[in-house]
Amino acid sequence: MKIADRLLPPAGLRVLISGGAAGIGRVIAQGFHEVGAQVFVCDIDESALAKIRQELPGVEGIRADVSQATEVDQVVEQGVARLGGLDVLINNAGIAGPTGAVESLTEQAWEQTVSTNLNSQFYFLRKAVPHLKQSRQNPHVVVMSSVAGRLAYPFRTPYAATKWAVIGLMKSLANELGPDNVRVNAILPGVVEGERMSRVIAARADALGITTEQMQAQYVEKISLRRMVTAEDVAASVLYLSSPAAVNVTGQAISVDANVEYL
């Protein structure tokens, strides 16, 4: 195999993506679809699921609330049945959580963020890992963390706490699953262009009493390359990690963020 040919995942990979019908997850699904992978997604948004089925023929998926263990069990069971096994798990689903000073946060908001961003990762892993261990196609897990998983993030403490926890989960599982030839890595997106980031910026601007434009300028000033990244940047990194070129890359927290210096 030529070196350059190692840079893309082989056709036919069986890929399960949580939160895969919209946002970064949808772009990751598109990337795998473009290289000939078999893709199964779940998402809480029925309309997004209908849209991805229409736009990416062959991609299948079901609605699920990933904070609910029984629904995740159904996703993995149906996904593995449709795909005929599993080679790659992308634990992508997550929410932004509340914005505000810690004393202003509600217990409900905290628990919802932890359930969606952290507990769901465990729910998927416990059901998917036995199938990944049976794969002979460079089995791999990507857990989606954030630049908030390596930096302090004032006024976004529930989100940051879950994203730091995801790194610990990844590091531990890389060691645990290495002898079974299952790789585990984390992607840490930075300030990603799109509707979700626009909402985050607006909420934090409101919490700090400044304009949205001022808040956006502050975000960009904290980035070494002085620009946001795109969902396509993140998807390309996921595809690389699932390719033969990354066969010995595991246990890594990989920032795709143009080097965010602080938050």
TrEMBL record:
InterPro entries: NAD(P)-bd_dom_sf, Sc_DH/Rdtase_CS, SDR_fam. SUPFAM superfamilies: NAD(P)-binding Rossmann-fold domains. It comes from the Bacteria. PROSITE patterns: ADH_SHORT (PS00061). The keyword Oxidoreductase applies. Keywords: Oxidoreductase. Belongs to the short-chain dehydrogenases/reductases (SDR) family. This is SDR family oxidoreductase. The lineage of its organism: Bacteria, Pseudomonadati, Pseudomonadota, Betaproteobacteria, Burkholderiales.
